[in-house]
Amino acid sequence: ELESGKWVKVDGWADVEAAKAEILQSYERAQNK
User: Fold this and answer.
1) Phi, psi at residue 19, to the nearest 5°?
2) CA torsion, ordered 17, 4, 32, 24, to nearest 10 deg
3) pLDDT at 25 exceeding the cut of 80
4) Do 30 and 24 meet the contact criterion of CB atoms below 8 Å apart?
5) CA-to-CA distance for 15 and 21, rounded, in angstroms?
């Protein structure tokens, strides 16, 4: 569930490896806050 007032733009669909890479990058960004 997204937080109120936030949104996500989807540029397109990719494969499983691209999804995994995006999730890992998001996790790393959150850890570096």
Assistant:
1) -65, -45
2) -10
3) yes
4) no
5) 10
8 A C-beta contact, residue 2 and residue 8 = yes
> How far is residue 20's CA from residue 18's CA, in Å, rounded to a whole number?
5
Residue 14 clears pLDDT 80, i.e. is over it: yes
Tokens of 29: 């960004």
User: What is the radius of gyration, based on Cα positions, of the chain?
Assistant: 12
Q: What is the pTM for the complete model shown?
A: 0.55
Please, what is the Cα angle at 15 between 11 and 21, to 5 degrees?
80
- The residue with tokens 């996500």 is 8
Single-letter residue type at 33: K
